[in-house]
Design goal:
alpha/beta, FAD/NAD(P)-binding domain, FAD/NAD-bd_sf, six-stranded mixed β-sheet, FAD-bd_OxRdtase, binds flavin-adenine dinucleotide, 24% helix, oxidoreductase activity, flavoprotein
Length: 291
């Protein structure tokens, strides 16, 4: 996935869309999507493919955006609001407010807010490599190759994390010739490197004062569904995180749906791109029926 910085027109608080269509075959149905990741993008594509001509408003909390989303933003029925996190849902009046106080009325709301790290960032995390989205794999691969070139030998990598993301990060490191040493204990801090030309961080320190030293540090921490927005609006959430959905992607509140990593079916978050895409396809069918 390629990312591109926003132009002046696209920056925070502004939106990007082609002119509004003059007619609508779906009686002006307004769909608002909270979140703009792969699940939201797949949903917009599916609705477009099905010739949905109501309006689709996508709220993204990010200022930069994938190329694919920019292309979707050019569709006549689509308006993407960059840098506008959905922050409050009024389910009774069917409106969503953003952090900046903008309000969007909806007929159907889809929550696709994805996942977030379980814990607050380790102190000094900005100094090291982080595997926190699928797109980070390529970035980490390039960064560790540069470290290996600089050192002139196989680097030793301190890998922090448990779960699937850490497993994938380990595979990325090994594929790039790094010897990973994995710790499942959470460090208290990442130690910045003092020597010029070295990677930004090469060691971690634990609460008890012990430390692990290597040539680079990669954080690949566990993630959980980002369901806070839904929970605050009274939607049912699962004990382990995730917006509870039925098999047709309806949440516990009428007119609100959830797809992708934000959703949990039967207590499980699938956490895969293919799952997000198929959820989007099935949800699009339901939305068109509802419209
Ligand atoms: C490190 C890592 C590696 C992975 N590797 C693979 C892999 O190899 N293969 C695979 O199939 N899957 C992989 N996955 C899983 C895959 O990336 C996810 O399943 C997929 O990204 C889910 O898409 P999503 O749109 O539901 O969520 P996300 O990708 O999390 O996107 C949600 C978006 O919503 C935005 N957002 C959040 N809250 C708000 C708000 N309140 N308002 C507006 N916007 C908001 C977020 O900034 C984000 O852009 C990986 C995931 C991670 C974390």
């Amino acid at each position: 996935m390629k990312f591109r910085p926003l132009s002046g027109r696209q920056r925070k608080g502004q939106h990007m869309s082609a002119p509004a269509p003059s007619t609508s075959t779906t009686s002006g149905t307004r769909i608002v999507i909270a979140g703009a990741g792969p699940a939201a993008q797949a949903l917009v594509s599916q609705l477009d493919r099905a010739r949905f001509t109501g309006s689709i408003t996508v709220l993204s909390n990010r200022d930069d955006t994938p190329e694919a989303l920019l292309e979707l933003a050019m569709l006549p029925q689509v308006s993407v609001r960059f840098g506008q996190p959905a922050s409050h849902i009024d389910a009774a009046n069917r409106t969503v407010a953003t952090a900046d106080g903008m309000e969007f009325a909806y007929d159907q709301l889809v929550i696709a807010t994805g996942s977030a790290p379980v814990a607050a960032p380790v102190k000094g995390a900005a100094q090291c490599l982080s595997y926190s989205t699928i797109d980070d794999a390529a970035r980490i691969g390039e960064a560790v190759s540069a470290v290996a070139r600089e050192l002139g030998r196989r680097p030793l990598g301190i890998l922090v994390g448990t779960g699937a993301a850490a497993g994938q990060a380990e595979a990325v490191l090994r594929a790039r010739g790094v010897r990973p040493i994995r710790t499942t204990a959470r460090p208290a801090a990442v130690v910045p490197s003092l020597s010029a030309g070295a990677p930004a961080a090469s060691a971690v320190i634990f609460e008890d004062g012990s430390s692990m030293n290597g040539d680079l540090v990669v954080l690949a921490e566990e993630r959980v569904s980002r369901d806070g927005l839904a929970a605050s609006a009274g939607l049912r959430t699962a004990a382990n995180g995730g917006i509870v959905i039925s098999d047709d992607f309806r949440t516990s509140v009428p007119g609100i749906w959830a797809i992708g990593d934000a959703a949990a079916f039967d207590g499980v978050r699938l956490g895969l791109l293919v799952a997000a895409a198929s959820a989007a396809g099935a949800c699009a069918t339901q939305l068109l029926t509802a419209a």
